[in-house]
Amino acid sequence: MKAEIILKNVCLDFPVYDAESLSFRNKMSDMGKVIVTKTKKNNSGGKIIEGLRDINHIFQHGDRVALLGHNGSGKTTLLKLLAGIYSPTSGSIKKTGETNCMLDIGFGFEQDATGYENIILSNITRGLKKEEIDKILPEIVEFCGLGEFLNMPFRTYSSGMQARLAFSSAIANTPGILLIDEFFSTGDLEFSKKSKEKVLEMMSNSSILVFASHDLPLLKTICNKAICMKNGKVVFSGEASEVIEHYQGMYER
Questions:
Q1: Among 45, 47, 28, which residue's Cα sits nearest to residue 37?
Q2: In terms of DSSP bridges, do strands 39-41 and 64-68 run parallel, antiparallel, or are they unpaired?
Q3: Are the C-beta atoms of residues 200 and 98 closer than 8 Å to each other?
């Protein structure tokens, strides 16, 4: 069965708590500002942020879709919706195919668990069964190159070692649908090169790729379609070259 994602009139709202009822937020209000797309009142009178608004799109087998837009435009929110982390407030999403998302590759890791234990825990969190994890375990162990450190608690790892293990665990299973939020550095130069090559391999083997990035030359090389977002809405979509040109006209004048 070919992978497919169908979004119909999808909206996603987030509640905003009244600052007067949150003393800590009230005290911190003068120390920084949070940029939001748009606020409105819900049925109970409370404020909400409109995270996504009226999204209609079909992702089909063979689509390599670039997600474009400035920070806060809704790219990550849309990826989390596609991943199943968020559910739409209204509208519908229909998805066929297994999903692997590289949004927070350290998600599901426990500081006091060993490297081996975290490989199992993180992949169970992603929906894999124990027998499936056992099959990919040797590949993860070889790719991360951490050797005997895998018997040590995760909290004893350097930040670079933690990134190595998290990345190696996340990329061991190639899905039908691959969701990536930006590209990330994973330790030393040699491992970063190897990790980028692995991600590019996964991209080519997946049925649907949705890739949010500001690296326009990379997107032009990888993607055949693109979506440009602004304030939680899709403002332009189509062939990658056309959408990238539109995006450049919006933000690179």
A1: 47
A2: unpaired
A3: no
CA 108/CA 56 separation, integer angstroms? 31
pLDDT at 215: 87
- Domain ranges within the chain, ordered by starting residue: 4-97+212-251, 102-206
Structure tokens at 139: 């590949």
- CB atoms < 10 A from the CB of 66, how many? 26
Q: Which fold has domain 4-97+212-251?
A: Rossmann fold (3.40.50)
Q: In what order do the strands lie in the sheet with 90-96?
A: 39-41, 47-60, 4-16, 90-96
Nearest to 99 by CA among 117, 81, 115: 81
Q: What is the pLDDT of residue 114?
A: 97
Neighbour-count burial for 166-181, b at 16+ CB within 10 Å, e otherwise: bbbbbbbbbbbbbbbb
Please report the DSSP string for 38-67 in residue order.
-EEE-TTS-EEEEEEEEEEEEEETT-EEEE
pLDDT in tens, 24-75: 545 444 444 444 445 555 555 568 888 999 999 999 999 999 999 998 999 9
| Residues ≥6 apart with Cβ < 8 Å to 253 | none
Q: Do domains 4-97+212-251 and 102-206 have the same CATH topology?
A: yes
Residues 6+ apart with CB under 8 A from 147: none
Q: In which residue ranges of the chain is pLDDT below 50?
A: 21, 25, 27-37
